[in-house]
Amino acid sequence: MMPTTVYVPCDTTALAMGADQVATLMAREAADRNLDINIVRNGSRGLAWLEPMVEVDTPDGRVAYGPVEPDTVAGLADAGLFEGLSSHPLALGRTDDIPYLKKQQRLTFSRIGITAPLSLDDYRAHQGFSGLAKALKRSPQAIVDEVKSSGLRGRGGAAFPTGIKWQTVHDEPAGQKYVVCNADEGDSGTFADRLVMECDPFMLIEGMTIAGLAVGATQGYVYLRSEYPVAHRIFKAALERAYDAGYLGDNILGSGQRFDLEVRLAAGAYICGEETALLDSLEGKRGMVRAKPPLPAIKGLFGQPTVVNNVLSLAAIPFILDQGGKAYANYGVGRSRGTLALQLAGNIKRGGLVELAFGITLRALMEDFGGGTHSGRPLKAVQVGGPLGAYLPESQWDSPMDYEAFAAFGGVVGHGGVVMFDDTVDMGEQARFAMEFCTVESCGKCTPCRIGAVRGVEVIDRIRAGDNREANLELLTELCETMVDGSLCAMGGMTPFPVQSVMKHFPDDLGA
Length: 512
Description:
This protein is an alpha/beta fold.
């Protein structure tokens, strides 16, 4: 009789909630019952509030239980967990039928939680490396054209068309070129990049290799957030296995094509998420924003043409090359094509990853998936797009999640982070935090950002203290405008967005 397969996730969230101990206790309980089980450490499905979410293979598909804490393992075993029975309060039924998952449109994240992250067999069994195999049979220009037809735009926040960026690097004269992956995921409430690297690392390796083939680059670097030790460990192991299997190196799958890939730990600075500061850091310098032009696509890493893309942008590439750019573009609305990895966090009942086509409203996302606030109190504000994104009042929650719709009212989709706040939040304090964040994280190169943020904190403090309120509100308005118009990069240029949104939509919270 074949052993029963039990899946216990191994990503950071599950580990923080005791997944290693759960796996150990599962093995012990099975042994005590003389049951033959095979424990697979899979990736997370992205349902963070249910972690660790344990799954059991049954003839009808996987059955899920969660959140499984160490002290619940014995009771679950008694209730028939190893047989896939559903008589326990933590039983969730068939995993694929969980509404949170069933309502999603997973293209990039179609494998996470299903496969073991470091299993090449699992990856290949779920269309893994199919995109690379097709890319190897195409010309570099044909690969670029496929990406263009997909409508893919940068998922790191800037939303610049990926195919146009690749075309620019492709058109530069032959010579040393680079592909750099920005995995310095620093936005508040975001974790999609981490899930890619911890749960489906070969997808990123495949995407970067295809990028190298497209633009004529032979060397790639992943600039990984230093606060992600689990992702670092898993991705390094995946690199070794990809090299051993011939997916990286001097002769990719016997094609004669070359691409090498390394991972580098980031500097622990938010500003190094900005692409030119990232390149400085990768070169061993202090991360400082570069003036543009020249663009990194023309003069990037070590002065050579460089593709710099976010993890999620590169992770979308295998699907696009395998299924075709038009298949990807069939999802979404307007100029926002494909799917977006939305990450729900903050004061929320059901936090986690939601991959959907562009177009769902923010309200539907927060209610249908998030389930409202964790506290049960009314929702007051939501910040989309990281610490530089505006705080959105209820009047803006029916806006569709797409780049142009958000830009129309001054919002940013950014990296897809959605952080919710109930009615106990002090929005004046949140405005102050935005300015204070900039004082800590600014690279210091330009005056509006370096000095403006410090003055911004001082002015907000005076306003909140009731010191010459009207004059200081006027001064804060002018200061924000100066930072937006005069800063060298988005750090200073967007820091005023959350402050301005508080002044406009939550003015009472700036009172004395």
